[in-house]
Task: structure prediction
Amino acid sequence: MFASLVINWTSCRIALILGGCMSGVGLTLCFFVSNIYQLYVTYGLLTGTGLSFCYTANLVFMGDCFAGKKFTAVLGVAASGITVGQFLYPYISMFLLDKYGWRGAILCTGAITMNICWMAGLFRPLKEYVVTEPAIIPGNEKKKFVYGSSNTIQIMSKSLSNLHLSSSMMQMSLKNEQEPPIKQSKKAFDWDIFKNLSFIIVTLNNVLFLFASSILYVFIMPFAQSQGHTMEHAAILASILGPSGAAGRLLLGLLASYHKVDTLLLYAFSFVAAGIPLVIYPLVGSVLHLLYAATAVCGFFLGAWGSIWPQILAIAVGTSKLSSAVGGCLFFASFGSALGPPVAGWLFDQLGSYNVPLYISGSAIILSGLIELIPWMRDKKKWLAIHRHHRAIQGEIHGI
Result:
């Protein structure tokens, strides 16, 4: 939520630079700590806040640059990089731990994280256009919509009756880079998003998802070992979530960008498909290859969260409120992530089995997908209209 405030006050670039500095400095300060309480501040508070700035700024920036279903495709490609990092980081961290110890390893991690700052300098806002209100001339059949960047202007033609935009009556000029842009008043945080039912449903979806996924990531290896599998096999089982999740984020993101696919229904289906393997986990726990297959299916469909949910959020509240929506959604979702492992651990202590926590994890993911059908059924006409709009736009683009 604080990241949204900074983005609205300044820009995505500044928020990303600030986040990179905070997380890098936080990790560097971990080198000097002498007790766990200092780690709460340096690693938990400072580093965690900085990384949340980076994640939120990235999402909002991509939402500003890429509209419609193109946003989902771009986000799928970008989000797949997260899981690649999750797959590689354990091996890098083990090498650093063996070479330099935990203090040296976390110092090196801080140095790597500081690279976010110079990368943020590449975030350049798009140049804007000023388009005056066109006149309507009856008796013609084409309307031209102008969009694009300062370097490339593409024109979409769409057949309409009795409507024409005369090129002589449409004045378009690029804003001069030397002229100061006209700044509109912008709220530090748009509280109106909490009046939006679709936003509340997406937030609840995130709470349930992060609650369930935190249980999965913490208990997947202990569960495998409790079923008689070796530590090496349990580690392989956990590592499958990385590449399968990367494939899911990339492929599901590209699929959601296809103009004939209903994005919201794909999102809901993906969560249901990801929860079912977790529910049957305890039933196939003794068969290692079935565990591998169930984990791969689960990780693949969980990739929908990384590549599709920001697009669902943008449709629900609009891109102008996306920074506030992302911050508010992730703020409440963090409670789900924090509650998952303690609740599952308490259940394990009471029952002496990992089965019930896994049942709860799978059921929560399935429920998080089913509740997404509420806004779809409630505003079915709206979602179908958006779907038809994307089909029309992508089907009728012509080069100049």
In short: The mean pLDDT is 75. Strands lie at 129-131, 142-148, 153-159, 172-174, 397-398.
